[in-house]
Each structure stands twice: as C-alpha cells, then as structure tokens.
Amino acid sequence: MQSEITHFLIVSPERSGSNLLGEVVGSHCSALFFGEPFNPDFLRRGVFPERMQWMDEQETLADLRVSDIAGFYAAATEQAAQRGYTAIGSKLLYSHIDHTPDLCSYLKSAANLHILRLRRRNLLRRLVSERRAQVTGEWWRRKGTIPGTPLPRVTLSVSDCMRDFAAQEARQAEYAPLFKNYRVLDMIYEDLALDPQSEAVRAQRFLGLSTDAQPTIWSEKTGLDTLREAIANYDELQPSLIAAEPSYAAFFDD
Known about the structure:
- This protein is an alpha/beta fold and about 250 residues long.
- The chain is about 45% helix and about 10% strand.
- It contains 12 helices and 5 strands.
- The mean pLDDT is about 90.
C-alpha cells in the first residue's frame, strides 16, 4: 500500500509562501499535508506540528524522527495510506536542513520523492516579512484573526539587503543538487498568491491528484501594507540599493 502513496516535500526559504502552498495542496481530499516536523523548535521540545497530532504512536514517530528519518516518513506514510490518502507531504525549509544534517543524507537516498520547490521573486519583501515575524513572533495568521501585535516598521541598510539576497540565492544553489534525482515542480510565491486556483491545479496534476477540487485557504497574509509603509528608511534605502545593483529596482514594486 505504501508504494501507492505519492510522497512530496515543499521546499523553500522562510517567508516564501510554504504555508499557503501546504494549505492549497493539503485541502485536497486525497492529500495529507502535515506541516514542518523538522522545525528546530519542535525537535527541541520533542513535539509535532498540529497537523500531525491525530497520528498514532506519537512517541515512536518522535524517536524515528531523530534516529531514522526514512523510517519516520515510512511510518507516517503507512498511517496516511491506512486512512485512504494517496499523497502525503510536509514542509522543509532550507534552515531545517541546516539544523538537521541527517536530512541531507535522507534527501540523497530517498525513493520516489516529489519536490515542490517554492521561491519568492521579491527578495526585499521576503526580508521585510522575516524581520517583522522575528519581532512579533507571528509567522502565520489564521484568516479572520485579529493581530496580537501591530506590524513594526523595519530599518534596513544596503549591506543588510545585499547580504540577505546573496545568502538566499546561494542557499538555493547549494541545496539544488539534493533534488536532482527527483521530480521537481518549481513554483513562485507571487503566482500562488495571485491565482491560488491555477497554481493548485499545477501542483495537483504534478502529484497525480484530481484537479477539480477548489483549494481551501485558512490563513491570510500578515502584511498588506506597501514597502514605503513597512520600511522606516525607505526613501534612503531605495535609491542606494538600486545604485548598488540596478536589477533590485524590480523589488520596489509598490
């Protein structure tokens, strides 16, 4: 039964829409998305994301997650198969791979993985979103929830931005070889946010799912303001960053 299951991973940097893509895919009746089991905080506390709380043998799964990643995914997949799912997947941020070296070994040898590789075109908005989440502690917001902490304005230097942009691009290039032996669907956050239905169809088709299901989205964006409103030193940063690298003008899309 396990061989009939499509095992997928959503791989992305932070603040690039991985939660949204997980919701879009996981809302399909035949797909199970169980969040980010390798979040360093979950690992440290020995717990699982909310989306995995229904699974049986939690202690066994927790032990396998640390000692045998392939065994962990096999056990989780078997439970999903018993419940009638045909696709099961989780979210894997690049930082999770940084904190859990055994993930590299697993990704080099796993069988039949489908990789949904997600990135964000606007690296400046990604950085602003990450800085704000670090301050507020709010990394995800359920639709209709009143924000607990107002979003702060952030101050960024040219060196902050260029260092982060280079790091994001380098990390994606560094880990790309891990996925060379698998089927990979490259997706863009901005396209997903603009038209989740069309992007859901792409992802569903890639995973061998029916494409007639309307995706359900439970979350909402945490930041809806413009970059000028979000960046305290916007008027100084914009010309300086563009002068340092003219292609960065595309990031100022307000």
